[in-house]
Structure formats: structure tokens, C-alpha cells
């Protein structure tokens, strides 16, 4: 659970889901992300950890194409090991 301030500065609790798919390659990276997003309610956040470079572009593109998620942020957390965390909002 994360504490979040909305536009009116009211404190709300927002559920953040995490999924670590390091070691998986395309197209399975998208399959795992899609399955996780399908179980979530709209507006919830998925933090997706991955290490397959092509998936950094492919997963958000496919989420948008299938209208299941919107990319909010990409953070490279380990340049040497090529690890990213994608923040995806369930649509």
C-alpha cells in the first residue's frame, strides 16, 4: 500500500502491484504483464521489473494497442545488468 495525495490534497491509499519477470523474453514479457493487468482494477499501478531490452518498448506498446494499460514511467535501475522498472497504469 502506498499513501497518495489526490488533486484536493486528500490522503488516499493506492494499491500498487509488482511483477518481476527478469529472465523472460518477448513475447512472454507481454503475456505476463497482460495477465497481471487483467486481474487489476482500472486506475491501479503495476510496477513491472524486467531485463529484456526489447520488452522496454514492446510491453508498453502492446498494452496501449490492446487498451489495457498506459505507461507512466520507465526507470533504469541497473545499467550493468540492464534492469528496468516500468510503471503501468491499468486502463
Description:
- The chain is an alpha+beta fold and 91 residues long.
- The protein has one domain (15-90): 2-Layer Sandwich (Translation Initiation Factor IF3).
- The chain has 2 helices and 6 strands; from the N terminus they run E-E-E-H-E-H-E-E.
- The strands form 2 sheets. The chain has a 4-stranded mixed sheet, with helices on one face. Strands 1-2 form a two-stranded antiparallel sheet.
- Helix 1 (28-38) links the parallel strand 3 (16-20) and strand 4.
Question: Which helices and strands, and how do they pair?
Answer:
Layout: E1 2-5, E2 11-14, E3 16-20, H1 28-38, E4 45-50, H2 53-65, E5 69-78, E6 83-90
Parallel strand pairs: 3-4
Antiparallel strand pairs: 1-2, 4-6, 5-6
Helix pairs in contact: 1-2
In short:
The protein has helices spanning 28-38, 53-65, and strands at residues 2-5, 11-14, 16-20, 45-50, 69-78, 83-90.
Brief descriptors of the model:
single chain, 91 residues, alpha+beta, 6 strands, globular
Average pLDDT metric? 89
How many angstroms separate the termini? 19 Å
CATH topology: Translation Initiation Factor IF3
SSE string, helices as H and strands as E? EEEHEHEE
Structure annotation, total helices: 2
Structural class: alpha+beta
Full CATH superfamily name? TusA-like domain
Reported CATH architecture: 2-Layer Sandwich
- Unreliable stretches covering 5 or more consecutive residues: none
Share of residues in helices: 25-40%
Amino acid at each position: 500500500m502506498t499513501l497518495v495525495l489526490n488533486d484536493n490534497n486528500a490522503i488516499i491509499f493506492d494499491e500498487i502491484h509488482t511483477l518481476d519477470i527478469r529472465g523472460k523474453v518477448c513475447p512472454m514479457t507481454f503475456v505476463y504483464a497482460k495477465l497481471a493487468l487483467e486481474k487489476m482494477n482500472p486506475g491501479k499501478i503495476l510496477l513491472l521489473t524486467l531485463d529484456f531490452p526489447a520488452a522496454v518498448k514492446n510491453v508498453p506498446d502492446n498494452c496501449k494497442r490492446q487498451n489495457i494499460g498506459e505507461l507512466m514511467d520507465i526507470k533504469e535501475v541497473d545499467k550493468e545488468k540492464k534492469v528496468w522498472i516500468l510503471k503501468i497504469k491499468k486502463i
